[in-house]
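Task card 7
Instruction: Convert sequence to structure tokens.
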Amino acid sequence: MQVANSTSVRGAAGRTTDTLKTKGFITRTPINMKSTPLDRTRVYYQPGSIIEAGNIASLLGLDPDNDVYKMPTDLSAFDGVEEAHILIALGIDTASAE
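Output:
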């Protein structure tokens, strides 16, 4: 799993990564996104990981029915993305709430 920060809130991806680690998740290095900041955080998943993505969304205070998406095929907006079955793109809603 990897966390990406789409906002200008410094350290948001690192803090979320640390939170997930304390919950027992194995995480990759946090990264930034090169695109316009997202209003809402999105949890992306690879095939076979939708249940875990929904659980992570709930853990982060998100709505599993509206904030969980299939992994995009084009990951060029993510700076330094590694292969991960779950990718969390932090939006203004989550980053500013930390």
